[in-house]
Amino acid sequence: MFILFGSAKYTWVKLMDVIAGDLGPYGRIAKQYRWVYANSKELKAKAYRMRSAQPALHIDAFDAVAHQYLMQHKDSGEFIAASRVVARDDLPPGVSLPVEEQIGSAFTPALREEGSLVCSEMMPCHYRDDLLARLQEDEDLLCLSLALGASALAGLLFHDYLLVALPIRRFKQFRAQGMRFEYAGELASFDREVANFYLDLRVGIKPGNPLNALQQLVAEQFAPFVNMPTLQETENI
Question: Nearest CA to 226 among 152, 121, 153?
Fold first, then answer.
């Protein structure tokens, strides 16, 4: 039970200390960062800009239907990383998700047979390299945090599977920490640096894993915004 006293800011900080303690090794990430669903043209522009060192915004065909999100450093207010989730059902006829198109006929039988289920893809992660260096942040931990964001967001959107292309090294890290990614192909061949994987969102992370608590925290930060009207990319940015 929490007794509220003093300023609201002080109370929130003490509450976050308790939450962070429950998150084990992921507590620092929860205290220092927030996950932000990009539901405005300003936030989307920040996500687009993070993809390129050029002044012009980098926008592609998937952005018209993508769910963009970012990670924001709380103390500075700066955005350090971004990614996006695209649902198969939101794509125009004849357009496939990139991972789905790459694996083609080698698509895992379980996924192929359950074609009526909603499938989405986490697109590549992007980072502010200057902020990574200044904060001495661990890129692998941020990538895990973005993957949790994609999983939480896809779950809130009632998707069943999340596809992603990952370096084999990161796949092994994610599996070791409790995210149950599986190889999206007939046979698991790890003779290359990057491969395609899927996450069954109906299974989830084991309840006793602190990563599960962090994912719930991320979902709570996204939940108030995911059902708001989406911005059309025809608007001026």
Answer: 153
